[in-house]
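Need residues for this backbone.
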């Protein structure tokens, strides 16, 4: 999967409220970062 595709998926998840919204963009970014780390771990299995 290309980086651009991954970015599009993450943006779609954020826009569809699939991540908890933080009190600001930085807080939301932390949720996204956790998701990415979890996803990487799962894909490496």
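Answer:
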């Amino acid at each position: 999967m290309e980086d651009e595709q991954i970015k599009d998926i993450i943006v779609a998840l954020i826009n569809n409220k699939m991540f908890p919204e933080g009190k600001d963009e930085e807080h939301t970014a932390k949720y996204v970062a956790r998701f990415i780390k979890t996803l990487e771990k799962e894909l490496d299995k």
